[in-house]
Each structure stands twice: as C-alpha cells, then as structure tokens.
C-alpha cells in the first residue's frame, strides 16, 4: 500500500474580491450560453480538441482518487450508425410504454422522440463508462468508492470543457445501455452511463423553450 506523501501545491497568486467576483460572473455568463442541441453541423472537430476536453474530465476529483471512469470517443460512421440503431430500438420500447406515462409527459416540452439522427450527424459521440471496480497489476480486484458521484463530476468537467472549446453537446441516456459494452468492446465491470453527442451546432439549430427556464438562485441556494 503506497504511503502518504505531500507535495507542494504552489497555488497561483490570490485574487482580490473584485477580481474574484468578475471572474465568477464571466464564467456564469459563458456557461449561460450553453444549451443542449439536437441539430449538429457535419463540420469536423479535430481529435486533439476532444482529447484535451477528456483530459480535463480526467482532472476531476474522485472517491479515494480511484478515477472510476473511462471515455470512448467514437468518430467512425459505421460505429455511430450501430449505436444509433441500438439506441433507437431502446427508445422505441421506452416510448411504447416502457418509460411510464409520467416520464413521457415530462419529456413532451423538450420535443424528444424515438428517432435520434444526431447520433450519426454529429462528428463525435463520447460514451462515458463508470468502472464498478478496478484491477490491480496482480489481477486482484480493487474496490472503487463513490463511483456515481465521481463520474458525475467528471462528466460536468467534460461538458464545461467542450463548451469552453466552442462546441455543443447533448446528453443521451437510452435505457438500458448494455449494448454499448458489446459495440465498444468494454469489459463487464464498466457500466455505460451516458452518450455525449458532440460537435458544432447547425446554423439553424434550435433548443426547446422549456429548457431555457432555469430555477432562480433563491430556489437553489440556501446560505446559513
């Protein structure tokens, strides 16, 4: 078992209150322009950009620093087509009643449906896997801690990085998603949790009016 060893943080120079407030407001303004879209341009996105954004996701904190995530970046058209076909099959079952009336009614203002053309139109799909456990060099199983929380934080880092790079994305969670392990050759301990559809938005892209309604700060913040 590795022993604890501290290394210097070497933090940047501290900001003044006004500078902090300005930086926080600038970031809020930037992220306020982020919207999930379903209309993507075929314009290519360099692999280096996707790799840098995923590297940012890999900097997220995680339980016991186990980093229980794996990202598969898919650009090959034939593979995107297979993912779309499998996802649409699951969506057809969902909208046929598998999702339940209440869930389907909740989705109506967002305009979702069975067909997912964005899965083949966007230049990249990033499939996010959660690793239930890891494997040590000797082949023994290594327990992972706070896996959903850790992967959720990393996903937030990734979405923010993609937006910062000028890209749009859409979170897609067909249920169940076991077909992704098979199509992408990922091991059984990994659970697919999300497909991020990534690319440039089409010039005529829209987003649901309902999605623009965000809770006000007093509704999401309590200060004690």
The third-level CATH topology of the domain at 36-132 and 147-202 is NADH Oxidase
- Work out the strand percent: 15-25%
Task: Give the class from helix and strand content and strand pairing.
Answer: alpha+beta
Distance between the termini: 41 Å
Percent range of helical residues: 25-40%
| CATH level-four homologous superfamily name of the domain at 36-132 and 147-202 | NADH Oxidase
Radius of gyration: 20 Å
- SSE series: HHEHHHEEEHEHEH
What topology does this entry show?
Elements: H1 17-31, H2 47-57, E1 69-74, H3 77-98, H4 101-107, H5 118-121, E2 124-131, E3 133-135, E4 141-143, H6 147-164, E5 168-172, H7 179-184, E6 190-199, H8 217-220
Antiparallel strand pairs: 1-2, 2-6, 3-4, 5-6
Helix pairs in contact: 2-6
Can you walk through the features of this model?
β3 and β4 (141-143) form a beta hairpin. The strands form two sheets. A four-stranded antiparallel beta sheet has the order 1-2-6-5. It has a two-stranded antiparallel ribbon with strand order 3-4. It has a domain at 36-132 and 147-202: NADH Oxidase (3-Layer(aba) Sandwich), CATH 3.40.109.10. It is globular, with a radius of gyration of 20 Å. Helix content is 39%, strand content 16%. It is built from eight helices and six strands, in the order ααβαααβββαβαβα. By secondary structure, it is α+β, with helices and mostly antiparallel strands.
What can be said about this structure in brief?
With 224 residues, this protein is an alpha+beta fold. It contains eight helices and six strands.
């Amino acid at each position: 078992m590795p022993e604890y060893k501290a290394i210097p943080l070497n933090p940047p120079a501290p900001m003044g209150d006004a500078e902090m407030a300005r930086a926080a407001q600038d970031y809020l303004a930037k992220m306020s322009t982020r919207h999930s879209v379903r209309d993507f341009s075929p314009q290519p996105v360099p692999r280096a950009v996707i790799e840098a954004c995923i590297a940012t996701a890999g900097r997220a904190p995680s339980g016991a620093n186990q980093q229980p995530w794996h990202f598969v970046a898919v650009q090959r058209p034939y593979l995107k087509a297979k993912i779309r076909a499998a996802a649409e099959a699951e969506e057809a079952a969902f909208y046929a009643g598998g999702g339940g009336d209440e869930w389907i009614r909740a989705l109506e203002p967002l305009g979702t449906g069975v067909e997912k053309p964005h899965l083949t139109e966007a230049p990249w799909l990033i499939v996010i896997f959660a690793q239930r456990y890891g494997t040590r060099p000797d082949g023994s199983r290594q327990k992972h801690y706070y896996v959903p929380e850790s992967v959720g934080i990393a996903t937030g880092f990734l979405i923010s990085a993609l937006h910062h790079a000028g890209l749009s994305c859409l979170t897609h969670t067909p249920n169940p998603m076991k077909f992704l392990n098979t199509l992408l050759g990922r091991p059984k301990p990994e659970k697919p949790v999300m497909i991020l559809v990534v690319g440039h938005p089409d010039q005529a892209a829209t987003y649901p009016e309902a999605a623009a309604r965000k809770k006000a700060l007093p509704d999401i913040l309590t200060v004690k």
